[in-house]
Amino acid sequence: MKQTQLDYINGLKGIGAGIVYLCHFVFAFYYGMYTLEPVNCHLPNNLDVVIGQSPLNTLFSGNFAVRLFLVMSGYVLCLGYFKTRDRKRLVVSGAKRYIRLLPPILVSNVLICLLMAMGAYCNVAVADLTASPWLAGFNRCEPNLWNAVWEAIFGCFFVGTNQFNGVLWTIPFLFLGALLVYGVAWLIGDKKWRYVVYLIIGVAVLMTDYAGIFWGFVLCDVMHTQERLVTWVKKQKWLLWFVFFAGAYLSSYPSAGTHLEGTIYGIIPIVMVVPFHLAGALLLVAAVVCLEPLQKFFGWKPFVKLGNISYSLYLVHFPVIATIGCALFAVLFEKLSYNLAVLITFVITTLVTFAVSVGFTKYIEPLGKKGEIYVGKLIGKNKA
Fold this sequence. Notes:
By secondary structure, this protein is mainly α. The chain contains 18 helices and no strands.
């Protein structure tokens, strides 16, 4: 089957979600790969630190993955608008945004609350075994169903509440950031001077997590409206590959930002982890949308399938790690070596996480799509 633009975009989203999952698993059981401190290490000869100081840390760099996800979200939000210049699409898409995101969040929060009430969360106890204070910091609140529902329908969208599901801290940026993008596109998306305003807004939000979604939107605008510039850039293969590898380098900057002397990252005189990862994600996406070989790679079928379940995977993976994963590890820890216990835990936790993600994608996410159809009819249009 011929690849489409949606394929490599979905592939990138899938990779981002997979990295977040690996990040949280690594932080739970090999926290030394993040802190780069021997006291948190479990592998022979402090191999945790060696891995964490190398480009391999990109595989579990959740900080980078979130920026990649935000940039990709910003890029796709207004694709239809820049192709058609139909401002009604922006209004309909903005109206649908909340109802599209809500159902998986609400269902996952209710289930998390029930699991907490049942005592299924084992992360606090297991944190002592894994030397990961990070793992002990989650789900310490009382399992109050009303609070869980409030967080899902209001708190996470408008004030960033994430007591029940830690990953919900990104939802305001995916929701309010999308409204910002839709609003800017509606107001000035067809003006020649819009790039001046883009620059002002882009600088204003640069040190916030709205920057990823906004600069992804700007990239989409350039790619779909500046034909002569894009045509010229696409001919500069050497430049695009340089952009890609520069993006890969910045993306792999270790998230702790410390203990980097003597590494390939020690040559950078300042430490700005979030801006580095944001710049890396933006450069990577810019290279991918211009280079066909990268599009083919990221459009690989397994990546695309991962992208199709990426939203649900993002929402459900930590509850699985903190319940089934931690409970299983606690049992295996008493009978096996640490690293073998972690390996078995990883395999089973991954299988369960993917099964739950597929279930959510198949049965819960469509509720949001039905809500989108209703909202579309309500405002007089079936499709954005």
